[in-house]
Design brief:
The chain is an alpha+beta fold. The protein has three domains: 143 residues, no CATH class; 119 residues, no CATH class; 125 residues, no CATH class. Helices cover 23% and strands 30% of the residues. The protein contains six helices and 19 strands. The strands form five sheets. Strands 10, 13, 14, 18 and 19 form a five-stranded mixed beta sheet that branches. A hairpin with a 2-residue loop joins strand 16 and strand 17. The longest helix has 30 residues. The protein starts with 6 loop residues before the first helix and ends with a helix.
């Protein structure tokens, strides 16, 4: 299963195994941790232990595929709650053949082949679980297309249909009961940063084994991103629009979930918590870092891509504000047509050169996160324009111009923080 584990997804979304919220009233905060000894062990509760716990039935999706991936379990949210789901990939789909004069058609390079991933989003519907299945397509796996919607009851297994056209694995989904478990010590926390202090770490009651952690930034610098590992999964929370993720001295709370592995028993599924949580990298607002250099380089190259594209968007929006004709559809097409890369290598080198830490890694590995950063910023504005068009169909010229002015100011402020 691919919880976001590369620069494409790890930057965009927080995986299901990580849930964080600021301990102080900040729009976003951070993740991190200090070393704690011990290992989590979970056990089936006795009948007396389960009193009060079985009042709410906990369910999970058991997802299997025919491509050799391990069986995965992901929790079903309680009625009235939603989740971003879980996705599997990436699959390199077969590209169109390129004609070769006088010879056989040849395939394009692997990195140019269209990508695909499969996404599952569960929600309760009566006494059953509705599972919406979609595929994520495109170079950046960010174009979503619905495939099927399944209604599955507990202990029922259903084969997913509609994936045959996308050159991905065949999947089956089963709804299983999750057995309550008792967490003893929280997972060991391995901290590669001297600037993060664990204020508290404790096991908490939830569908899957989870740990609540409170973290403090003890440095005098703002933290903009943290790379955290739980097993093979990667999460990279970061400050929005160039902001700090954790201000100096601020405390941040997060919940780290396990449960992807466990034991299938006659009563249901008994999840096992993660053995350890690794605070792999901390990146500061000045471009310095503590921890793993590759993770820091991936984030900083993406940030450089953000800065390059944000500068373009400020110019585009400034021109849109000053023009007499206000045409949002034309603006959306103009933004979508912006390239995901620079026009020359010198411009990219200048953008990456703002971060001396990037000199510690080969330049060849910086291209993908840099172009992804440019693409993501551009797509963010495209989505903003689309959302405004849908919510303000009757907006007059003054309303449109006010929105454009606010958007220009937003991206101008964003650029100033990068």
């Amino acid at each position: 299963m691919n919880r976001p584990g590369n620069h494409l997804a790890a930057i965009l979304m927080l995986p299901a195994f990580l849930c964080g919220q600021p301990a102080l009233p900040k729009p976003l905060a951070s993740l991190s941790a200090a070393a704690l000894p011990g290992r989590v062990s979970y056990q089936v509760q006795s009948s007396s232990d389960r009193k009060g716990v079985e009042q709410r039935k906990s369910l999970a999706l058991e997802i299997t595929s025919d491509d050799g991936r391990p069986t995965s379990h992901t929790p079903v949210p309680p009625p009235g709650f939603t989740t971003r789901g879980v996705w599997f990939g990436k699959y390199n789909r077969e590209p169109p053949a390129r004609p070769v004069p006088g010879g056989q058609p040849r395939l394009g390079p692997v990195d140019e082949r269209p990508k695909a991933a499969v996404k599952f989003v569960p929600e309760m519907e009566g006494d059953a679980v509705r599972v919406n299945v979609s595929v994520l397509l495109g170079r950046y796996v960010d174009k979503e297309k619905a495939v099927s919607s399944l209604l599955i009851h507990e202990d029922e297994t259903v084969s997913v249909t509609g994936l045959e056209a996308y050159d991905v694995a065949a999947f089956k989904v089963k709804v299983v009961r999750v057995l309550p478990s008792i967490g003893e010590p929280p997972p060991a926390i391995i901290n590669k940063s001297k600037s993060i202090e664990v204020v508290r770490s404790e096991a908490i009651d939830s569908t899957m084994p989870s740990t609540s952690i409170k973290l403090k930034n003890t440095s005098e610098k703002g933290i903009v991103a943290i790379d955290i590992r739980i097993g093979g999964a990667i999460g990279r929370p970061q400050g929005r629009e160039g902001r700090n993720l954790i201000e100096p001295g601020a405390v941040y709370g997060l919940r780290a979930f396990g449960g992807e592995s466990g034991t299938v028993m006659p009563e249901g599924y008994l999840p096992v918590g993660p053995g350890q949580i690794v605070l792999n990298t901390v990146v500061f607002a000045d471009g310095t870092f503590e921890g793993d250099v590759d993770s820091a380089a991936d984030y900083l190259a993406t940030r450089a891509g953000h800065r390059t594209q944000v500068a373009r968007l400020v110019d585009v929006l400034d021109n849109a504000v000053r023009t007499a004709a206000l045409d949002l559809r034309a603006l959306r097409r103009q933004v979508a047509a912006l390239p995901d890369d620079v026009l020359n290598m010198g411009e990219r080198e200048a953008a990456l050169g703002r971060y001396p830490a990037l000199g510690q890694v080969p330049a060849s590995i910086l291209s993908a996160p840099f172009t992804f950063g440019m693409h993501w910023v551009k797509q963010s504005l495209v989505d903003d324009i689309t959302a405004f068009e849908k919510s303000s169909r009757q907006a007059g010229a003054d309303d449109v111009r006010a929105w454009l002015t606010a958007s220009r100011n937003k991206y101008s402020d964003w650029f100033a923080r990068l």
